[in-house]
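Fold it.
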Amino acid sequence: MLRIILVGMFSFVALPLAAKGPLPAKFTVDGQVLIYDTEMQILGEDVEMTVDDVDDLKDMLSKHPEVTELQLNSSGGSVFAGEEMAWIVIGFGLDTTVSGECISACIDLFLAGNRRRMTLGSKMGFHQRRWSPKSVKSYYENWSAEEGWETPFDFGSWIYADTQTEIYQHLKYLIERGVDAGFAVETLRVDSSAEWYPSRLKLIAAGVLREDPMAN
């Protein structure tokens, strides 16, 4: 599934190379808090979570060993990036906080935190994952020979099996991070064109939030 995610991300990787002058930073440090904010535009394009952010997160944490908390404001992006950054956060034992919004792939990153908070006025959104028709076509054309897909039907059969594996792994991760199993299933209730925004009380009851957001 890794190649699937990377195919959809290549267009973002080249974006910073075309910019003139310094670009807005997704990562900034404020005391012991590392802020990760993707809600900006670069060259007129919305910025998202990308594979480049994985190495940037490692770099920031290595340069700032005093950091104990990751603050998030992101509408999501690359599923692969979210999963890889989540393992980094778990490894460093960081707390996580949502200040603004945390949607889609950002959720995996948030759930990697030990203490998990959401500031008042912030929100968390869940929806099903999506693979665009354009990316599906590109993936089939690029990998059909190596994977032995003689027809699009062979590819469709592979997608069916691979999707079930991916969803199983995702739900397993949520439950391992302390999220109620019933709530984890409910995160799949809305398709990728919409969002489900549970209330703060529901997020606390489900184990998504682990501490009173007003606590020090």
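Residues 152-176 form the longest helix (25 residues).
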